[in-house]
Amino acid sequence: MSAIDDLPPLRDVIREHSLSARKSLGQNFLLDLNLTARIARAAGPLEDSTVIEVGPGPGGLTRALLALGAKRVIAIERDERALAALDYIAKRYPGRIEIVHGDAQRFDPRPLLDGAKAKIVANLPYNIATQLLVDWLSIEPWPPWYDMMVLMFQREVAERIVAHEDEEAYGRLAVLANWRAETKILFDISPAAFVPQPKVTSSVVRLIPRAAPEPCDRRMLEQVAAAAFGQRRKMLRQSLKSLSADPARLAAAAGIDATQRAETIPVAGFVAMARELADIRATK
Ligand SMILES: C[S@@+](CC[C@H](N)C(=O)[O-])C[C@H]1O[C@@H](n2cnc3c(N)ncnc32)[C@H](O)[C@@H]1O
């Protein structure tokens, strides 16, 4: 019997289904059900929730979500071998889990949600984790179809998500993430908890989408952040040249001193510059 349910230990499931981890699928399995329960609990009370899980693998996190009362888990998995393995969970929690075979990068859960908000909870495959997050933060129209994300990343990526100005990890990802969501690193998980062990520590990050982020065109924001951080050691009057013939004026119109560098500008400053850029483009 396991720590959270009456199902077999994950090591037995992996052995029975020959689920040796594949690097190409970013597979590092978390076999400690106390830890998967800690991640599931970080998503708050689950009783009325529909949870989207990316990459359930042998099902450690899936089991925790269901044991803690998630009303429904929609799990999308690319690895066919894992689909067969997950059957034991479907039998234990009839009607509460839907397993979708496919690529999370092409998966739109909206038709399955009937307008209700979901939570995204996942130990993401590290090779596509950042891109998945950017896609979820770029959803239009905003607010999106989820009301919370609890996601595991490599520690270094987690730091780039939650960073603020004047911090080393501050960059394009933090601007997008903190513009659209409240972000927080909740706790770390050591490499020793995974099979196989990754080289680096992982962190669980919670993102709660803002209902009304400061209005601006997301693509303009991305362009300003890309130009400014593309030359992060340069002053804005230099780094924004690719966007505007008069970058000092663009910054000044947004209330920003163009002798500053990208890393010192808060998200609100990027938003103000994105609005000015949109105005300049509109009057051209
Ligand atoms: C880091 S493992 C996590 C497995 C499990 N949730 C756990 O915590 O032990 C990532 C999982 O994502 C799956 N995966 C990889 N690429 C995927 C994709 N594009 N779409 C859906 N699942 C994917 C892998 O097969 C693997 O099961």
UniProtKB/TrEMBL annotation:
Similarity-based family: Belongs to the class I-like SAM-binding methyltransferase superfamily. rRNA adenine N(6)-methyltransferase family. RsmA subfamily.
Q: What is this protein called?
A: Ribosomal RNA small subunit methyltransferase A
Instruction: Identify the PANTHER family for this entry.
Output: DIMETHYLADENOSINE TRANSFERASE, DIMETHYLADENOSINE TRANSFERASE-RELATED
The organism's lineage is: Bacteria, Pseudomonadati, Pseudomonadota, Alphaproteobacteria, Hyphomicrobiales
| EC class of the enzyme, as a word | transferase
Listed A to Z, the keywords are: Cytoplasm, Methyltransferase, RNA-binding, rRNA processing, S-adenosyl-L-methionine, Transferase
Could you give one GO CC term from the UniProt record?
cytosol
Show the catalytic activity.
adenosine(1518)/adenosine(1519) in 16S rRNA + 4 S-adenosyl-L-methionine = N(6)-dimethyladenosine(1518)/N(6)-dimethyladenosine(1519) in 16S rRNA + 4 S-adenosyl-L-homocysteine + 4 H(+)
GO MF annotation list = 16S rRNA (adenine(1518)-N(6)/adenine(1519)-N(6))-dimethyltransferase activity; RNA binding
Chain ranges passing through the membrane: none
Q: Which Gene3D superfamilies match?
A: Ribosomal RNA adenine dimethylase-like, domain 2 (1.10.8.100), Vaccinia Virus protein VP39 (3.40.50.150)
The record describes the protein's role as: Specifically dimethylates two adjacent adenosines (A1518 and A1519) in the loop of a conserved hairpin near the 3'-end of 16S rRNA in the 30S particle. May play a critical role in biogenesis of 30S subunits.
Pfam families, per database record: RrnaAD
PROSITE patterns per record:
RRNA_A_DIMETH, SAM_RNA_A_N6_MT
Q: What is its EC number?
A: 2.1.1.182
In this chain the Ribosomal RNA adenine methylase transferase N-terminal domain maps to 35-211
Question: Where does the record place it?
Answer: Cytoplasm
Record: residues binding S-adenosyl-L-methionine: 28, 30, 55, 77, 103, 123
